[in-house]
Design a protein that fits this description.
97 residues
């Protein structure tokens, strides 16, 4: 009976250690997850602003480039210049400096 009691005490203490260790690990994981979430969420507004600024820049640049291309097309049409440079001058890319 004394041996059984000693085994029972040692077994329950070993089980207690394992369960306690698992609970501590689970609590640490949960706390770490909350900390990571708070850290990440702190930067979400800045990331959103950066994304919005990048999209705005890309949209304005695209519109600007289309406008410039349209202006060049109108100028060429007025001057009667086929795909040469602006105002009827040959384009340097065509091999004529």
């Amino acid at each position: 009976a004394a041996v059984y009691r000693a085994i029972a005490v040692l077994g329950s203490s070993a089980v207690g250690r394992v369960v306690t260790r698992e609970l501590i690990v689970a609590a640490l994981r949960r706390a770490a997850g909350r900390w990571v979430a708070k850290s990440f969420l702190r930067y979400v507004p800045f990331a959103g602003q950066a994304l919005a600024a990048g999209l705005s820049y890309a949209a304005v640049r695209w519109i600007g480039e289309r406008h410039i291309e349209d202006c060049i097309a109108v100028l060429r049409a007025e001057r009667g210049s086929p795909k040469g440079g602006p105002a009827g001058r040959p384009s340097p890319a065509a091999g004529n400096p």
